[in-house]
Amino acid sequence: MTKHSGVKPRIGLLGTGPWAARAHAPALAAHDGVEFVGVWGRRPEAAAEIAAASGATAYEDVDALFAACDAVAFALPPDVQAPLAVRAAAAGCHLLLDKPVATTPAAAREVAEAAERAGVASVVFCTLRFAEPTARWIEEQAAAGGWFLGEAHWLGSLYGPGSRSAYAQSPWRRDKGGLWDVGPHVLSVYLPVLGDVTEVTSVRGQGDTSHLVLRHTSGASSTATLTLSAPAEAAEAALTLHGERGRATLPAWDGALGAFAAAVDALVDSARTGVPHACDARFGVRLTEILALAEEATGPGTPTG
Length: 305
Hints:
Blueprint: E1 10-14, H1 18-30, E2 35-40, H2 44-54, E3 57-59, H3 62-68, E4 71-74, H4 78-90, E5 94-98, H5 105-118, E6 122-125, H6 127-130, H7 132-144, E7 147-155, H8 171-181, H9 183-194, E8 197-204, E9 210-216, E10 221-227, E11 236-243, E12 246-249, H10 257-273, H11 281-298
Parallel strand pairs: 1-2, 1-4, 2-3, 4-5, 5-6, 7-10
Antiparallel strand pairs: 7-11, 8-9, 9-10, 11-12
């Protein structure tokens, strides 16, 4: 795993927004299996604040952080993440990527190809694939098979009336909407259970809402309604499968900290064994390709906010 002599793999964090401060940094600082060594961000003062709270070092030079690390975790906008991930891979760092990897298939493929050239491991942090209740449920439904239909809706209220969420200040989320922000979560469940997507139809609703209809290699079809503009009273995330044994509903999960720690474990294990994880950068490419097809089918819509 390591290019350094320490017992624990050394990991750094790229990003200083609320997601980095509230999830990534605390999870890395508390993780017994890695040494959290440093933070880099486009706002040096924010990097210094997160590093001080986590017992890590703030880096002003991202390449210096790469040189000090065996792996790096990303909490950056997707189209900032992608080129930096290419540089990190070339520096020999294993990659813990956020979803979506990028917002164009070409940029996502560059990340996957860079990881393969460098021989580094990669994991895309799709929360539902690493949160303990949902990860186990996905494995069970994939093993069971016989599914006829999937129905999902992820109704976020980030840009709903009266929202004061810190995440609402994210320009990329405002530009790309629920399709790109929460769409990867739904797809990360559908693909291992129903198979790859072979056909995409999409219709736009109010605000940034997208209604997707998908066909899968198993022969099953699925739907997904995705938005960040729902009223707070209507906010909900739910996914139900219908098949030979009746219905199965995705269980609730408790936040992202435990799930992120499990993703760190998955990256360390993949780097140690050389076995690619199911949610590696190539999986991230496929998510990006499907989302791009859905965006093309939907066409331009009303900006959020």
